[in-house]
Write a structure and sequence with these properties.
alpha/beta, Rossmann fold, 2 domains, 7-stranded mixed sheet, 5-stranded parallel sheet, 9 helices, 12 strands, about 40% helix, about 20% strand, globular
Amino acid sequence: MKNLLYQWDTDALPSVFDSVVAYDGGADHVIPYGGVTPDRVGPLVEGAIFTRGPKDKRHTAIFVGGSDLSAGAALFKAVQERFFGKFRVSLMLDSNGANTTAAACVALLSSGRSLAGMTATVLAGTGPVGQRAAVMLAREGVSVTLTGRQMEKTRTVCDALERQFDVRLDAVAAPDSDSRAKAVVSANIIISTGAAGVVLLEERHWSGLPKLQLVADANATPPAGIEGVDMMDRGTQRHGALVFGAIGFGTLKLALHRACVGKLFQQNDLVLDATEIYAIAKEMVVQSQGGKS
């Protein structure tokens, strides 16, 4: 029985990246569809859940992707609403790679230490990766501040995350270098999740912060989002903090993405969103360290 992964993308053109990783994760065939919306997904779900018997449904799975996290979440919900009884297949959401990227980042930051009681600033946190990282940090007991260019949008994003995930987040408007420097001055953790090639924080603004312990930059396109971070950093000591660059935790992100796809074919009722993917990431980090937490 072949493992079939249906890749339903909210963008017009399905992601090549997601297709490649799906094959590497254990799919025998990846069937991509672009421009999938909640109102059009019904016949697709029916085709996935009605074609194989109970023992074989685990060999069919669905991956929801695309560049828009909100659109992906709506599609993800619509797919689940079409399931009933035993007529369901395993399902994963990773729009914009937000779940796997954020999970890999925060899992490494929390490796070997408790984050509870720390403070974190997520720069440009209104984007997909920033949103997911903020939720994961908050659930670890961290006091999290999201920055964005506009206060109204930033607060709206925080409110939505608070309702969905039952966490508390602070919003700060930080449209320029000086305001972002002010936003991180008391942080124990700084994560940059802004647009590719945009410097959000100058090195002089974080190199002397006495409370800073952990730094992560999700930008793999030079220049770095946080000046002074190398994309290959993986727990590198810089200015008294442990620093992680985009490739430094990107290796785990790819391994996590593949592992999640593989798990989809182990049962027919697995649902992988931010919470579940983060738990898998933490388990992988522990295993990589020989079982030491």
